[in-house]
Design a protein that fits this description.
four-stranded mixed β-sheet; about 425 residues; D-Maltodextrin-Binding Protein, domain 2; 2 domains
């Protein structure tokens, strides 16, 4: 009898324990669901880093307001760093594990950032049908691909164009670059002649430099004549060539013989009206729209013996590693690169989404160049444009090249000797 009572008591105890465990499990599950649900509403702060102007920041402030309509719990803190300091700033932040969540990356930065493992893989974006990755021009994604993974999304793919002061050409009685394009006579020889002809009264015929550390525009001249900065696998510096010498000799003539180009240190901007022709990527149009004192337009770059190959600038967004809120950071990146986001930023940038590039909204911005000029200098040149060089040691390479240009600007050495010196400094870096 005692044994039987013991079994009954044991059975009751087990049932009670089982029920208690079940209740605890249900409670934990409810608590877990509650926490998961609540986490979506928890305040989150993301850092977005860029190097843009105040006008760019204004566009992003408006974009962030739109983003917050569907993501009210995510606060986006925007930080702007000057472009010359940006790459070094990211490197310093990476060392201190204080990288931004999302940030701009330029073409020359991408190889180094990928090599150092600073960028997150965003290949999963391709699986989102609503995001519509097929809307991007495939070539605009190549820069961000490595080992079948995608480490960034472009937002700007502007080819280099020539901004020119129409009034200066009219005053000098010279054909404009677009008139030469129409006549089939727009080549580098004619460019030099035109620059010399319109130079007078404190006006320089042309300027290749956005600032005196930005020499990259000159590569379009070298490319058009069959030369290049590096060989294909970037194992050798190849600008020390007849084509490279020709490029530096052209600049030397314009600076010191024809006086058709500013000398180093002179701060003469296109919007001052003192520059006849100015080389920059199409994104500069956002500044040119504010010019009211003279008529201006854009034209394709001159042709060389091998054709016309404008430099293609490219900038994109990177999702940086180490984010405390990676899923929220992905949502911000998706929004910035959605059709809505790319359309908003197309005020300043050449969009990588086909639907936006072909839209009237992109072409018909207030104070834009004529639609015909945009088609001729931008849309029709996209297939000819080439990405500027990038390398994991770009900063060292750039420093060596700038040193060579300092020798040219100071008339310390001739182009052949300058390029030889560049080669001696840069080849060891490439190995």
């Amino acid at each position: 009898m005692i044994k039987k009572l013991g079994l009954i008591f044991l059975t009751i105890l087990m049932i009670t324990f089982s029920a208690a465990c079940s209740n605890d499990a249900n409670t934990d599950a409810k608590d877990s669901d509650s926490k998961d649900k609540g986490s979506k509403d928890e305040p989150v702060e993301l850092t977005f880093m860029m190097w843009g102007s105040e006008a760019h920041q204004e566009v992003y402030n408006k974009l962030i307001v739109k983003f917050n309509e569907t993501h009210p719990n995510i606060k986006v803190k925007m930080e702007s760093v000057p472009f010359p300091d940006y790459q070094q700033k990211i490197t310093v932040l990476a060392a201190g594990r204080e990288l931004p969540d999302v940030g701009w990356v330029a073409e020359r930065m991408v190889p180094q950032f990928m090599e150092n493992g600073l960028l997150e893989d965003v290949s999963s974006f391709q699986d989102d049908k609503e995001y519509n990755m097929d809307d991007f021009f495939p070539s605009t994604l190549d820069l961000f691909k490595k080992d079948n993974k995608l480490y960034g999304i472009p937002f700007s793919t502007p080819p280099m164009v020539m901004f020119y002061n129409k009034d200066v050409f009219v005053k000098a009685g010279e054909k404009t670059p677009n008139e030469h394009v129409a006549a089939g006579t727009w080549n580098w020889e004619q460019f030099e002649k035109s620059a010399k002809a319109i130079s007078s009264d404190g006006v320089y015929g042309a300027n290749f430099f956005r600032d005196w550390n930005t020499w990259i525009a000159l590569l379009s001249h070298t490319w058009s004549n069959g030369g290049d900065l590096f060989n294909k696998d970037q194992s050798k510096f190849t600008w020390n060539s007849p084509e490279g010498v020709e490029t530096l000799e052209m600049l030397q003539r314009m600076m010191f013989t024809d006086s058709s180009h500013p000398k180093a240190g002179e701060q003469v901007s296109f919007d001052s009206g003192k520059i006849g022709m100015f080389f920059d990527v199409y994104s500069y149009v956002s500044a040119a729209r504010n010019v009211k004192d003279f008529a201006w337009d854009i034209a394709p770059l001159p042709e060389g013996s091998e054709g016309r190959f404008p430099m293609l600038g490219q900038a994109g967004y990177g999702l940086f590693k180490g984010s405390k809120h990676p899923e929220e950071a992905k949502e911000l990146l998706k929004f910035f690169t959605s059709q809505v986001g790319i359309t908003e930023t197309s005020t300043f940038f050449v969009p990588p989404r086909e639907s936006v590039l072909s839209s009237d909204q992109f072409v018909n911005q207030p104070n834009n160049p004529p639609a015909e000029s945009i088609k001729r200098a931008v849309l029709d040149e996209m297939d000819n444009a080439r990405l500027q060089a990038g390398h994991i040691s770009w900063q060292k390479i750039d420093t060596a090249i700038q040193f060579g240009f300092d020798e040219l600007f100071g008339q310390l050495k001739e182009p052949e000797e300058i390029l030889k010196g560049m080669e001696e400094k840069i080849n060891p870096i490439l190995k």
